[in-house]
Design a protein that fits this description.
By secondary structure, this protein is α/β, with parallel strands linked by helices. 34% of the residues lie in helices and 20% in strands. The protein starts with a strand and ends in an 8-residue tail after the last helix.
Length: 298
Amino acid sequence: MQKLIVGCGYLGGRVADIWIAQGHQVHALTRSSERATEFSRRGINPIIGDLCDLASLPDLPAVETILFAVGYEKSSRRTRQQVQLTGLQNVLARVASADRLVYISSSSVYGQSAGEWVDETSDCQPVQPGGISCLETERWLMSAIPDSTSVTRANVLRLSGIYGPDRLLSRIESLRSGEALSGSGTEWLNLIHVDDAAVAVIACELHGKPNQTFLVSDDQPISRADYYGLLASLVGAPSPRFDPGGNPSRGSGGINKRCRNKRLREELQVTLQFPTITVGLPHALAASLSGPTPRPTE
């Protein structure tokens, strides 16, 4: 089977490895000739083009599945809308056909901030730019699919904060130095290990009902105090200190809601390898310190 990945990075690269191990041919879009060479070494067929520039995009092959997992980089000098919505529109304008498209969105589409539980049925009123852009793209995609001549079905995966090897570990030196962290520490964090996120993509491809949305998060939200307390204990740092006057919101998501993953577990039949941060963080830290680790194959 033919697969296409747009955004073959931290998450997309792991999905590519799974598909290749399963015997599929994987294509990946990139603007970089260096990345194209890297893809070729990994058994991925590179396609060079800029998803934000329709004129630069070649015709894309007919595939069974498209994974659109494009992250936003401020250094790109593009707007979030250009990268997400326009980028997706350009890809669909160039692809010959696809049976399914999996769009990687974010739990930042939820604007709740008082510790509320949220799931796929919850109201979406994002307050941060990333959440606003993701929700706009989600809504366009779901409205476009019924009339699309290139893609038959679509699914949206709203991911919580992805962590794993070399990710979400940047606070180690701050903890070791005793630097105060912003916020009170009581705010909720929602996380998903990158390997579990990759498995969720595969499960969505296999079991996801057409045009349905899934919230991808682990089994247990954790307070920032508990998260940083666990990280501090793992790296031998002093207990974390917090500055209630600081703003704990970061990136495009903000915090202090709690994500429920019932649909992920029951409808996509996903059993998480790292169901809680207490299981996943030691693994992520050890992998970060020891170098590359094997990726999931199923």
